[in-house]
Design goal:
two-stranded antiparallel sheet; MetI-like fold; 3 domains; 459 residues; mainly alpha; single chain; 19 helices; 2 strands
Length: 459
């Protein structure tokens, strides 16, 4: 099995060189092939070829081939950087650095590395090494306080997925094909035509197909597999709810607060204040508001309106809504702060010209204000998603503790529950690696899609 992967890497290497180089030669083809083979062999040999060992499943083979592909791709990128340097090509960062070095003082190339060494040392000790240790821990069966651990290769990962390797390959390939098909349709259609409307609908459906493919890939449980599919669904619902509530609410409040009012500075400061509260405190506050026995909201609804409010911890919809409300309120001030700053950059001349032309307030908002705020919206989309994925544990722990029946147990809550509370460090580490890869993939996808539609003033 290892030989098959290395042969494929040896073939892909020259193809990569042919695709990305103008100055092609036999020597470069050989370097590309060798780099791909070495990069692909490194993770396989480093893990002792456990994915190809006796008793390994087809899903284990897929994981090992995926690691080999990643290692070979990184090696080819390094080789391409070497080729670009040999051809005299300069990246924007290199050209910018060259402009700095043309001043009165010329320093050696080692000086920036010396100046960066304290930061690099901190990153290595507190970021890169723990990340590597987490991945190593995810391949072991170990418990908190246990003196020994057992290597399980990809067992902590494969138990989260369905057991059919063909479906694991087919589902993402179908989703990717739909994405590229929608993108091709979008490029071939003219704006304002029926074909473009169809392309817009196809693009939305293609994006939804990615979530459906991931849903089908995760295990529903049973047969020794972990029921991770419900965790995935809960994470998507709560995360999207937090982002939608936080960003739409933040923009709406900021747009209203931007008006010239007496005491506006104090008013805006009070609006931003919730961001200073920790997620744990937000959870405590909303627990006190919605508590079914002593909550303020429950008491007011009962005494003033005679309405018996049900226990939110016993209903999936109410529990998820309460988490979205608490977490969205927590990050609302952060979004208001950036949108208030962004509204100051909106070109007033265009707004006044649109007003003279008879544009309604909604037209001015959608055609002028929103495009001007697109850089800030793009930034907030990334930061809000990161918050929704990583910062909601304390809020959930205080309000619902994952209840009812795990309907508020998102990915980060499952990681801490399994890895810390239950002491199963290997499975917790595997789920944390999975969440990390998901966030990186979503961020890259946002930069490739939303980032292309962001317009910066003066560019």
């Amino acid at each position: 099995m290892l030989i098959i992967g290395l042969v494929v890497a040896a073939i892909i290497g020259p193809l990569f060189v042919w695709r990305n180089n103008e100055n092609r030669s036999i020597k470069r083809y050989g370097i590309g092939s060798a780099a791909a083979v070495v990069g692909a062999a490194a993770p396989a040999i480093g893990m002792g070829q456990c994915g190809f060992a006796d008793g390994a499943t087809g899903v284990d083979h897929l994981f090992m081939y995926g690691l080999m592909f990643g290692g070979g791709w990184l090696a080819l990128l390094a080789a391409q950087s070497f080729f670009d340097r040999a051809d005299g090509k300069k990246k924007d960062s290199a050209a910018f650095a060259g402009e700095i070095r043309t001043g009165g003082f010329r320093l050696g190339t080692w000086v920036p590395w010396v100046l960066l060494s304290p930061t690099l040392l901190i990153l290595i000790v507190f970021l890169y090494f723990p990340a590597f240790s987490t991945f190593t821990l995810s391949t072991k069966l170990t418990r908190l306080g246990a003196p020994k651990s057992v290597d399980v290769c990809f067992g902590n990962f494969t138990e989260l997925l369905i057991t059919d390797p063909f479906k694991l390959v087919a589902y993402p390939l179908i989703a990717v094909a739909l994405l590229y098909g929608a993108r091709f349709w979008m490029r071939r259609s003219e704006p304002g035509t029926l074909s473009r409307r169809g392309a817009d609908v196809a693009s939305v459906l293609a994006v939804l197909s990615v979530f459906v493919a991931l849903y089908a890939m995760f295990s529903p449980g049973g047969g020794g597999q972990v029921a991770y599919r419900p965790v995935y669904v809960t994470t998507i619902i709560i995360s999207l709810g937090i982002v939608a509530f936080g960003m739409i609410g933040g923009l709406a409040v900021a747009y209203l607060a931007f008006r010239n009012l007496r005491g506006a500075s104090i008013y805006r400061t009070m609006l931003i204040w919730p961001y200073a509260i920790s997620p744990a405190v937000a959870g405590v506050l909303f627990f006190m508001i919605f508590d079914p026995t002593a909550g303020i909201f429950t008491h007011v609804m009962d005494v003033w309106f005679g309405i018996d409010v049900p226990n939110y911890r016993e209903t999936a919809f109410l529990a998820q809504f309460s988490i979205i409300l608490a977490s969205g309120w927590k990050i609302l001030g952060y979004n208001i702060l950036f949108y208030l700053a962004g509204l100051q950059t909106v070109p007033l001349a265009q707004v006044e010209a649109a007003l003279i032309d008879g544009a309604t307030s909604w037209q001015r908002f959608t055609k002028i204000v929103l495009p001007a705020l697109s850089p800030i919206t793009f930034f907030l989309l990334v930061t809000n998603l990161t918050y929704a994925f990583f910062e909601v544990y304390a809020t959930i722990d205080f309000m619902t503790k994952g209840a009812p029946a795990g309907k508020t147990s998102v990915a980060i809550y499952e990681i801490i529950r399994i890895g810390v509370n239950n002491g199963d460090l290997g499975r917790g580490a595997a789920q944390s690696v999975l969440l990390f890869i998901a966030v990186i993939a979503i961020t890259m996808w946002q930069f490739r899609t939303s980032g292309e539609r962001v317009s910066y003033g003066g560019s």
